[in-house]
Amino acid sequence: xxxxxxxxxxxxxxxxxxxxxxxxxxxxxxxxxxxxxxxxxxxxxxxxxxxxxxxxxxxxxxxxxxxxxxxxxxxxxxxxxxxxxxxxxxxxxxxxxxxxxxxxxxxxxxxxxxxxxxxxxxxxxxxxxxxxxxxxxxxxxxxxxxxxxxxxxxxxxxxxxxxxxxxxxxxxxxxxxxxxxxxxxxxxxxxxxxxxxxxxxxxxxxxxxxxxxxxxxxxxxxxxxxxxxxxxxxxxxxxxxxxxxxxxxxxxxxxxxxxxxxxxxxxxxxxxxxxxxxxxxxxxxxxxxxxxxxxxxxxxxxxxxxxxxxxxxxxxxxxxxxxxxxxxxxxxx
Length: 333
Ligand code: PEP
Ligand code: MN
Known about the structure:
By secondary structure, the protein is of the alpha/beta class. Helices cover 32% and strands 19% of the residues. Helix 2 runs parallel beside helix 3 (139-152), helix 5 packs across helix 6 and helix 9 (275-284) runs parallel beside helix 10. The radius of gyration is 20 Å and the shape is globular. Bound molecules: phosphoenolpyruvate and manganese (II) ion. Phosphoenolpyruvate (PEP) is lined by residues 97, 123, 127, 179-181, 202, 232, 267.
């Protein structure tokens, strides 16, 4: 249950009530809210004089639920970029899977700048399936991203692979990405709850929508309101494509949650040939953002080589998204 306390109830009283009800105590706008275990369905008579409003839930999707906030939350990346809320924006994010060298990431940054893409993606800490694969440049990669950020005025999204990197990722980037394989890492989730930068939470490829949104609840209930969901494909019985992009799931998330949704067709299909069509399908769904891997020379990429678009392919795709965005009432930013 979420209990919104009256505006004149201060922090000390809110914390006292929070203890009694085993609730998370959060500040929202200018009042405190208590997020109790879901099994609580009624406000006790003795608390009623303190309560402005209450919301009852039948499962553990509470803060992310449309029953609590009936519209998509607006999330800001710096002062200039906004998604969700009343914006109708679809933010396009592109860049390589991994930062590999200064030359490679600079070519990517220049490409973003030329096309008008405002957010550059690239991993510095890579969560690979094999210990023998490229693990990323680590902190040196983050510093290169930071350099591109100031040189080209771009925003940066980069992935946190374990909770000890959270502070570095915040320092050198603007959005913290939690990868599919980390969706259940409670150390990362709880560390990301304590920051106020936007967090892009990817859906684990073997998880249900309920489990996915509950992971988002860990971040929200710990105090970070800036959570963006990312569908990037789930594992099904199909083996011809890398994963299966769950667009039905996206429709469900849009209907039932108040979090913006970014779609990642690159990791879903796993092959560059299918990325443009799939991206157009995502755009047609009216998503809040698109995350697409591009590389100056995909054939030599150190990770995810088969799915990255080259710059010409991405430019054609980007142009083709514009009429689709218009048809569904979205602005590409
Ligand atoms: C990535 O974005 O490069 C990545 C590793 O994605 P995912 O966590 O979805 O596999
Ligand atoms: Mn990748």
